[in-house]
Write a structure and sequence with these properties.
4 helices; mainly alpha; about 100 residues; single chain
Length: about 100
């Protein structure tokens, strides 16, 4: 979707990532991350940064044990879904008509 300057949101997020913004996906939101999701989002980011490949149940179990944290089944599934979505974005072919 074109933004105010005509460039798509994806271009803005790519530029932010290239500039070293730690989590450009949060830039896409016009609202702050709800407080109730902060711990789950932090868990997702920690797991994603620790894994070379897709986040797996085994990595989640190990992370929980190392951090003395217990995620609910719903939270585990949410982390796995977020990881799949992020990997789809990472693996999407770059548009050739967009320059950074």
């Amino acid at each position: 979707v074109p933004q105010g300057d005509g460039a798509p949101l994806r271009v803005h997020l790519q530029r932010a990532a290239a500039a070293g913004v730690r989590d450009p996906l949060l830039l896409a939101s016009k609202q702050a991350l709800p407080r109730a999701l902060e711990a789950l989002w932090s868990a997702f980011l920690a797991l994603r940064s620790a894994c070379k490949g897709p986040v797996s149940h085994a990595e989640i179990c190990a992370w929980q044990q190392l951090n003395s944290v217990r995620l609910s089944p719903w939270e585990v599934e949410t982390v796995l879904c977020c990881d799949r979505a992020a990997r789809e974005i990472d693996n999407a072919p770059a548009r050739k008509d967009v320059s950074l």
